[in-house]
Automatic annotation (TrEMBL), chain B:
<dbReference type="InterPro" id="IPR052910">
    <property type="entry name" value="ABC-Purine-Binding"/>
</dbReference>
<dbReference type="GO" id="GO:0005886">
    <property type="term" value="C:plasma membrane"/>
</dbReference>
<dbReference type="InterPro" id="IPR003760">
    <property type="entry name" value="PnrA-like"/>
</dbReference>
<feature type="domain" description="ABC transporter substrate-binding protein PnrA-like">
    <location>
        <begin position="43"/>
        <end position="270"/>
    </location>
</feature>
<dbReference type="InterPro" id="IPR028082">
    <property type="entry name" value="Peripla_BP_I"/>
</dbReference>
<feature type="signal peptide">
    <location>
        <begin position="1"/>
        <end position="25"/>
    </location>
</feature>
<keyword id="KW-0732">Signal</keyword>
<dbReference type="Pfam" id="PF02608">
    <property type="entry name" value="Bmp"/>
</dbReference>
<protein>
    <submittedName>
        <fullName>BMP family ABC transporter substrate-binding protein</fullName>
    </submittedName>
</protein>
Length: 312, 338
């Protein structure tokens, strides 16, 4: 039975599934990384993803174009996080509480909007989903081809966002300023640079990325929206940022590890190997807690994360 | 004196008229039902419930106007939802379509004149005004299993389900039993996605089963994108799924809640017209295929290409089960992969 797991077709299926499962998590986690680097905790990822999934579905259905759906999700994510940013940055409302409120908003509003959009219909329509975009030559490679180079466009985008965000944060002046807002906002303030402007930008970017992750579920995976279909992915993205110690590459690794464990438990069940798969489902969270416990204090978190800046 | 007599006469007469009117009023003309749904209306389980409710509304049992309001996505705060409905005083029956025993137990005593209903596994008999119904679609699932057993080329038959529970185990066990009854070489594979509705995860589970060799898969989580892509044979449940997946859905085991809802309304009617107290049985009430619990609906795309012998086997099997010549075992134990 265990030998069945090591057949090429099964391994390829397992790794390709890992990359697919990772896509929405990675988009949301990289977005949250930027927000948290600027000093703002956005706990509203789950609700933002859900709204992204809904608006992508509605816009794709209404326009007949999946890319319009993607654009709608980006806009929704940006608007939702703009509201969040106004509350926590301008009005300095407590960040965690506001984030939780955004989740409730996303959960309630998405179902209400769905009902309003298809009033009186017993079934909501199905939309098409994106096809895979095989990359010429590379997708022909054995194993690595189907795993990495025969995926959806949004998956490539998610993977490319890792080096892009790394480069921005660590190799550009605006990136340095943004991190400064999370580590030592007073330094920015003394130089006459706006902390709020940087935090707004970071939070809006993070929200748009989370909504894009949500959109992946409806434009690239399932053909219909379903209430609560994000199913905790937003929360997992937050855990991933912690497990990845607020750094882009470790976040990519953490996402892939979590996704691999999920793909593995599905494959193990599919083959019928008698290992309790619940154990594997719990493993990512155990790993995250261990990572935190081992690194002790903060474990790489920005020094002023979650603390509103007040001039003295 | 005559004045007094007339007054008495009129008084007596009007009392009689009033009593007659009261007797008339005892037979209700309207029943108001609150439907407490565990998930969104899109989830196939809820869709089948709502479709059945709509048929019952149209059929007007006992000449009643049946009026229904729904609340969706109730699971964690069920007690609050039941209590709020009850406190309005407007609802006669509060009908929950999943495991709400814990919530109902806390509420039912405060509202003895309201009928509470729970459904399926994860409940326990509470008696009094708490009624328990169960939907078993094991008989149609058995027939679909026979079809899968005949149609599979790899001899690997799979199923992607939500959680292990008695109202999924019944169908899964019957499905695999059906497949093995016509093809002893069949190996069964079962994957639980550990969520009532997560299409993305269900698709990944389907891909994993295909990689493990399955070419006939029972999709108990209502997700068919991968089935369509890979053009394997898939089976749906609760409602006819071929509208969403015309290429891949071989057949669906549809579920009718009509007998359960009718039974619930009958119990309510009896209590209201005789003035008796609600006295719910402690065991769940369920109905067989013969009694109208469901059906097998062949998918649009497969109807034309289904081999003759499979079609005949299906028809014979359905006839035998409905006539009682063939018994399908109701097996609620947890399913394991071979």
């Amino acid at each position: 039975m265990l030998a069945d797991l090591f057949q090429t077709t099964v391994i390829v299926s397992l790794l390709a599934a890992t990359v697919r499962i990772a896509t929405p998590l990675l988009l949301a986690a990289i977005g949250e990384l930027v927000a948290e680097r600027s000093g703002v905790y956005n706990m509203g990822l789950e609700g933002t993803m859900l709204m992204g999934a809904l608006t992508a579905y509605l816009a794709a259905d209404a326009s007949g174009s999946l890319w319009v759906g993607v654009f709608a999700a980006l806009t929704t994510g940006a608007l939702m996080s703009l509201l969040f940013a106004f509350l926590v940055i301008t009005l300095q409302v407590e960040q965690i509480v506001t984030g939780l409120a955004m989740n409730l908003l996303g959960s309630g509003l998405s179902v209400y909007w769905l009902r309003a959009a298809f009033k009186g219909q017993s079934q909501i329509p199905a939309t098409p989903i994106f096809d895979n975009v095989p990359i010429p030559f590379l997708s022909e490679l054995p194993v690595i081809g189907p795993v990495l180079f025969d995926q959806k466009a949004l998956t490539y985008l998610a993977l490319l966002s890792v080096p892009a965000v790394w480069w921005f944060l660590y190799r550009t002046r605006p990136g340095l300023d943004l991190r400064c807002a999370g580590e030592n906002p007073r330094a920015l303030d003394i130089k006459g640079l706006s902390i709020a402007a940087r935090q707004y930008g970071a939070v809006v970017f993070g929200g748009a990325m989370a909504a894009l992750g949500g959109a992946f579920l409806t434009v690239a995976s399932a053909s219909r929206f379903a209430p609560e279909m994000t199913n905790g992915r937003g929360w997992l993205a937050i855990v991933i940022v912690i497990a990845g110690m607020w750094r882009p590459v470790p976040i990519l690794v953490a996402t892939l590890v979590f996704s691999f464990l999920d793909a593995l438990q599905l494959q193990i069940q599919g083959i019928g190997i008698a290992i309790p798969y619940q154990l594997m489902l719990a493993l990512p969270y155990v790993v995250a807690i261990l990572a935190l416990a081992v690194r002790r204090r903060h474990a790489g978190a920005p020094a002023m994360l979650g603390v509103s800046y007040r001039r003295e | 004196m005559p004045g007094k007599f007339t007054t008495a006469l009129f008084g007596g007469l009007s009392a009689l008229v009033l009593m007659a009117a009261a007797a008339q009023a005892e037979n209700p003309t309207k029943v108001k039902i609150a439907g407490v749904l565990s998930a969104g209306k899109e989830a196939p389980w809820e869709t089948s419930f709502i479709n059945s409710m709509n048929r019952v509304i149209a059929a007007r049992p006992h000449g009643l106007d049946v009026e229904v309001e729904y609340t969706e996505n109730v699971y964690d705060n069920a007690e609050q939802v039941f209590r709020t409905y009850a406190e309005t005083g407007e609802y006669d029956i509060i009908f929950g379509d999943t495991a709400y025993a814990d919530a109902i137990e806390k509420v039912k005593g405060d509202f003895p004149n309201i009928m509470f209903v729970m459904s399926g596994s994860g409940n326990r008999g509470l008696g009094d005004n708490a009624y328990w119904v169960f939907v078993h679609a094991h008989e149609p699932a058995f027939v679909m299993g026979e079809m899968a057993g005949k149609l599979t080329k790899s001899n690997v038959v799979g199923a992607v389900s939500t959680y292990p529970a008695e109202d999924t185990n019944d169908q899964l066990n019957a499905f695999f039993a059906g497949a093995k009854s016509v093809n002893p070489n069949v190996k069964q594979k079962i994957t639980y996605i550990q969520s009532w509705y997560d299409p993305t995860k269900a698709n990944e589970a389907t891909s994993a089963q295909i990689a493990a060799g399955a070419d006939m898969i029972y999709q108990m989580s209502g997700t068919f994108e991968v089935c369509e892509q890979k053009e394997i044979g898939c089976f749906g449940n609760y409602v006819d799924m071929s509208a969403f997946a015309p290429k891949s859905v071989v057949a669906s085991a549809t579920v009718n809640w009509d007998p359960q809802i009718d039974w619930v309304i009958d119990q309510w009617w009896n209590a209201k017209t005789t003035g008796a107290k609600f006295d719910a049985p402690k065991d769940p009430k369920w109905f067989t295929w013969k009694e109208g619990s469901g059906d097998v609906v062949v998918g649009q795309g497969w109807a034309a290409k289904l081999p003759e012998d499979v079609k005949k086997m299906m028809d014979d099997s359905i006839a035998a089960i409905k006539s009682g010549a063939k018994q399908v075992e109701l097996d609620l134990s947890e399913v394991k992969s071979d």
